[in-house]
Design brief:
Layout: E1 3-8, H1 13-26, E2 30-35, E3 50-52, H2 55-61, E4 65-68, E5 80-83, E6 110-113, H3 116-129, E7 133-136, H4 143-147, E8 159-164, H5 173-183, E9 190-195, H6 201-208, E10 215-217, H7 224-229, E11 232-235, H8 240-245, E12 251-254, E13 264-266, H9 272-281, H10 284-297, H11 305-317, H12 331-341
Parallel strand pairs: 1-2, 1-4, 2-3, 4-5, 5-6, 6-7, 8-9, 8-11, 9-10, 11-12, 12-13
Helix pairs in contact: 1-11
Length: about 350
């Protein structure tokens, strides 16, 4: 039996890690959760899930493996550090103009990548750093998406799922509010609105005020059922776009920073209605581009990515992929974590 620690700071992490947790439970391993910060709702914990209440308990727990859907974690806590990602590469850049998805912060021993267009860049980074492994497993959070039972829809109206990122520079929520307000007065479509948990509260309240028989605002820690249910997505620049496309369903984006041919990208809010109609019709050329995107982004559709993550961890722990270098000391980053966690023991 091995001890696993799930280190999280956002509610969406539950749906990413629970498929892995189920694999671990099935084989008799022990799992505990640790919530960093105050953004995680403890009410989302299930009865069979154990939470560690302090960083001191984390140290004493002495996990064999720490799994995090995060960019960084403290390296002074025990265990093999495994990154499973909190989303797909959406092309977002940091302040220096670098793709944040592929930034190495010296925190992880193993990256479990999602598909070729994630694996290949990390493999190149691995050659330069030599202190972490990269194994393509598929993304655990999508396992339920591929084994989800087909839903019986309550009506014949197409269902439009509207999602948006929280970044003010990238979010379409504010700009599309007037047109969505108008379109949801018609009964041609059913709308579901679901935003990133960091979305500005004023924007959230504005959309909640639109709720009627045609539009519902949903707050959830698990977006998979919504992706499964919807026919078309409207979004901006967010990794949830890729999650939706992997079902072979079209997405309308507004001012996407990297509008590939697999998207119906618009720059004028008034074009939204016609673009949704086009998406619903599923043009042959568009659907072909979506298929090509799937092959590069997440070709695994068997719902067994979590099993591969666990197997990859076993292989690393078993010495199958020895490393030539150790992780950097990370003094500054670990000092920030110690300050944030109020932990000063060495």
């Amino acid at each position: 039996m091995k001890k696993y620690l799930f280190y999280i700071s956002q509610n969406y992490s539950f749906s990413i890690l629970r498929p892995i947790q189920q694999v671990l439970f099935n084989r008799g391993d022990k799992v505990s959760w640790f919530f960093e910060g105050d953004k995680v709702n403890p009410d989302y914990l299930a009865e069979n899930e154990n939470k560690l209440d302090s960083i001191l308990q984390v140290i004493e727990y002495h996990a064999d493996v720490v799994i995090a859907p995060a960019n960084s974690i403290p390296t002074f806590i025990p265990g093999l550090k495994v990154a499973v990602f909190h989303g797909f590469d959406a092309g977002k850049l940091d302040k220096r103009g670098r793709n944040d998805h592929f930034k190495i912060r010296g925190c992880f021993d193993l990256y479990c990548t999602q598909g070729p267009n994630t694996t290949q860049p990390f493999k190149q980074l691995q050659k330069g750093h030599e202190f972490f492994n990269v194994i393509e497993t598929g993304w655990s959070t999508l396992d339920p998406l591929f084994i989800f039972p087909k839903l019986t829809k309550p009506s014949t109206r197409p269902l439009v799922l509207f999602c948006s990122t929280f970044s003010k520079k990238l979010s379409c929520a504010k700009q599309l509010l007037p047109v969505v307000s108008k379109l949801c007065q018609s009964d041609q479509w059913q709308w579901i609105v679901q935003f990133h948990p960091k979305m500005d509260q004023h924007i959230v309240d504005s959309y909640k005020a639109l709720q009627n028989q045609n539009l519902t605002f949903i707050e959830t820690d698990d977006v998979i059922p919504l992706l499964n249910k919807a026919d078309v997505m409207v979004c901006d620049t967010s990794s949830v776009i890729n999650m939706f496309l992997l079902q072979n369903k079209p997405v309308v984006t507004f001012n996407n920073i990297k509008p590939g041919s697999y998207l119906l990208d618009i720059t004028d809010p008034d074009a939204l209605e016609q673009s949704i109609k086009t998406a619903i019709s599923r043009p042959e050329a568009l659907m072909q581009h979506i298929q090509e995107m799937i092959k590069e982004t997440h070709p695994c559709t068997d719902g067994k990515s979590s099993q591969r993550v666990v197997e990859a961890i076993d292989d690393v722990l078993g010495g199958k992929y020895p490393l030539t270098k150790s992780k950097p000391v990370n003094l500054v980053r670990n000092f920030k974590f110690r300050k944030r966690l109020n932990y000063w023991k060495f």
